[in-house]
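Regression test case RT-17, inverse folding.

Input:
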């Protein structure tokens, strides 16, 4: 507290209790606290605080908003600072990402601001991944959710130069990195006697389809030792082979 200032207690208090239908709405108190300075030229500072029950249900909050925020008579009866504080308390702070007057999200308590930021980003990442799965943009998480090292897969990719003809790539998954929507996996195969590795995002929209050809049991989570072996160990069939029952004309019609 600054020197030469005096806090007057709760000099003004407005308490509201409403009844919506047959359900009782919890009371909302708006308290005013004034700090006066000894110097006559300094104006007193007013602080407002809105007390809303934390365990209020969504119906009770809607009733409180009807009696306060959406009631012009009540809003004009209090000061501008109290109106601002009341609006902040009864408005969803996640707006516009969530409904403005919807239910207040309950987040787990964290140790500090850095942990809270990480938890929020993780939650947003999970929501984005769920939306991509439901919309069908993410093919692999829907068809092969347990993709792991040792799986021989055939990928059908979009051709950026010709939308009528798709690209194909076959190989073994040698590594997978889990990081939400930024997850990636590495596919390895031999092309003309040279080992080739391609990195694909797990939630990539360029992957149109995926087929699990074989699942080989591996003791390691990453098969990076294949880089130190002969090229024959990295040969898993024709890299650009498409399914036998899919010809160029059938692929063009399907596209």
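Golden output:
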């Amino acid at each position: 507290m600054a020197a030469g200032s005096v806090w007057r207690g709760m000099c003004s208090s407005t308490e509201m209790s409403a009844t919506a239908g047959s359900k009782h709405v919890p009371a909302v108190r708006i308290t005013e606290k004034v700090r006066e300075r000894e110097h006559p030229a300094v104006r007193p500072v007013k602080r407002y605080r809105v007390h809303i029950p934390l365990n209020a249900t969504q119906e009770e909050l809607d009733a409180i908003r009807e009696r306060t925020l959406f009631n012009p008579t009540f809003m004009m009866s209090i000061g501008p600072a109290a109106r601002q504080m009341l609006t902040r308390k009864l408005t969803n702070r996640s707006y516009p990402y969530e409904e403005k007057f919807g239910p207040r999200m309950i987040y787990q308590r964290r140790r500090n601001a850095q942990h809270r930021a990480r938890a929020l980003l993780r939650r947003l990442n999970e929501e984005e991944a769920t939306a991509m799965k439901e919309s069908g943009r993410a093919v692999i998480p829907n068809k092969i959710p347990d993709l792991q090292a040792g799986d021989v897969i055939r990928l059908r990719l979009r051709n950026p130069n010709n939308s009528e003809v798709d690209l194909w790539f076959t190989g073994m998954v040698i590594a997978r990195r889990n990081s939400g929507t930024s997850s990636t996996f590495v596919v390895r195969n031999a092309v003309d006697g040279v080992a080739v590795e391609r990195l694909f995002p797990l939630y990539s929209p360029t992957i149109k389809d995926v087929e699990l050809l074989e699942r080989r049991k591996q003791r390691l989570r990453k098969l990076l030792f294949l880089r130190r072996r002969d090229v024959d160990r990295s040969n898993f069939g024709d890299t650009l082979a498409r399914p036998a029952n899919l010809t160029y004309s059938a692929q063009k019609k399907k596209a």
